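User: I'm writing a tutorial on reading structure tokens. Could you give me a worked example: one chain, its sequence, then its tokens, then a sentence or two explaining what the tokens reveal?
Assistant: Sure. Here is the example chain.
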Amino acid sequence: MTTQAEASVREPALQLTRVLVVDDDASILGIVSEVLEDDGYEVVTAASGEEAIEILGNETFALVMSDIRLPGINGIGLLEHIKKVCGRTAVIIITSHGSMQTSIEAIQLGAYDYILKPFEDLALISNSARRAIDSYNMEAERSQLMRSLKVSNEELSRMNEVFHGMAIRDGLTDVFNHRHINEMLDEEIHKAKVDYSDLSLIFLDVDNFKVYNDVNGHQAGDVLLRELSGLLQESVRKKDVVARWGGEEFVVMCPHTAEPVAARLAEELRRTVAEHKFSGAESQPKKKVTISAGVATLFKFNDKRSLVQAADDALYEAKRAGRNTIRVANHETSR
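And here are its predicted structure tokens:
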């Protein structure tokens, strides 16, 4: 599927071939216009700088060819206006042999070229105009390409962000998924060992979730898990990370957190969930949705496998103790 940005990169910009010729001498206007029209350019004429500015306010030109000497606003004034207002429009100054210093000034102000009159070779008009118009159109194409590439890169960055989010987040609850929390846990354990800091893990599980699903239906169960994940995220600290471990089981990773602090946090989460008014809670044995939690700390369990197993074992102990409670892992209870 071709994106709009890709299409605009592949399609060349339309070539602009319109030329505005400005001179108060009708014979010069006639000569220059005839040469340009013979070359296939669309020509518009003006007899003064003021008339040219009015035309430029309504139309776009690739090139303006103007005599340096004009009544009212002269060629230099017109050049300055064009560079200020018309951006890339090229300007060729037509000047007499005695006005070389003014011609140099015009080039310094941004004129593309100058042509001396009387014209010794009409091909000079043709060649200079062609180069100026080609330069204008090449710059227009370059600018369009840069804009298109910018859009394309922004689009690509946005898509990459979306895909990255999909890869690391749980599709149902939008918290981090099992794979990503495992990767984060590896990183945090490494940091904790380098910094000699604490790291705790809380495993949470919805009590009697099968009963809830059987009575209320799986769609209601999905709604419950989404609501629970949001509640957990609102209740933890900024540095804590909530993830879905699988099914109705969640994990909270707590960097720089000692065991007593993690245990208090687990208890606060348990109480918050028990007090929350979930839809369908009357189907539960205690007429409310509750969780059990297990806490383990890296201080006691030195590697990821042992830490995860200890938190899971502590959760199992909380379930055995009657649910809606927390347990802290120790070496005796951990397998």
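What the tokens reveal: Strands lie at 18-22, 42-46, 63-67, 90-96, 113-117, 199-206, 241-246, 249-255, 291-297, 326-328. The chain has two domains: 4-146, 178-328.
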